[in-house]
């Protein structure tokens, strides 16, 4: 019997993660910006959507697979880029990448991963999708783009919603930086998690190997200089156009909420946008991405170019996003909760759960295949209460 037989929802994993991680590590994952209204809005947006079942479909040939960015995946959901995962487990990046490859799920490696891009590519035998923050210096940006191209990354995801660092109150209150502020609270919560602490100490200091320039000491790149590096660039449309010219493969803009911005990005030659508010971690007043999706879809942006994340917590949420126009749906925190709960086996269990729940929702709705969701959207099968 699976070790996770009693885990039926993302919240089951979240509760386990809360117990298994020091408080500052759990809060880094779980928290959002400001008073966490955007975080709450993401959940409310999904709760308000109703799906109308249609009868008479034959489900013998149900098919969850989907084409996205020229690749075929088993399911219509994937793992969003997650930086600083080393706070959950020293090998978190490799573990997530491995499970994703085994399960046929898209995986985006963060620019601020704690494992070098090339190491992930070697371990998998193929390069992952790579997420990119445009740094202040053009030479640093070009060198990272060249590196991702040399490694063979088939897709570059440019994150645009970081014009300023999000004001994450939980992190500020814990004094979360590297090395960690040695406050009494932080010391006590670390000592209360001896397995986590021992693993972390044995693995050595957390570094950001994708961001170090040649000759730079990676360990010296502090969390605050990292935040400045990733948010200090001028990511204007001219810079995005230059990235489009330079990057020869599929290109996605992440963190888009306005339909006009989505149209402009696609007009520049981006292949897709991720409609996202960074999981409510950047701007407390940002709308829920799900609420912005219908306008983009109605404006003629095809599902193949509309990806979505932020607040997705179940198979039914995935189906709701697809019903409203998304061609692929990403989740962030749920995979880190699973990883903290029980490593790769737990992440695999979460993927299986989501897959079953997507299949169940499709059956109850009368939707036979994700690839044919277009016909199903035309029937106007969602409502907002
Ligand atoms: C711990 C953590 C780290 C993240 N790091 C990055 C990152 O390095 N780059 C990025 O583009 N987005 C990052 N994100 C945002 C996710 O890619 C994604 O947009 C968000 O988690 C989706 O919302 P959800 O967590 O509600 O599923 C991070 C999110 C979390 C929770």
From TrEMBL:
Keyword set, alphabetical order: Flavoprotein, FMN, Oxidoreductase
Oxidoreductase recorded as keyword: yes
Domain annotation FMN hydroxy acid dehydrogenase: ranges: 2-383
A GO molecular-function descriptor: oxidoreductase activity
Pfam families, per the entry: FMN_dh
Coiled coil: none
InterPro entries noted in UniProt: Aldolase_TIM, Alpha-hydoxy_acid_DH_FMN, FMN-dep_DH, FMN_HAD, FMN_hydac_DH_AS
Enzyme Commission number(s) of this protein: 1.-.-.-
Gene3D superfamilies in the cross-refs: Aldolase class I
Cofactor: FMN
Alphabetical list of PANTHER family matching this protein: 2-HYDROXYACID OXIDASE 1, S -2-HYDROXY-ACID OXIDASE-RELATED
Family: Belongs to the FMN-dependent alpha-hydroxy acid dehydrogenase family.
Protein name: Alpha-hydroxy acid oxidase
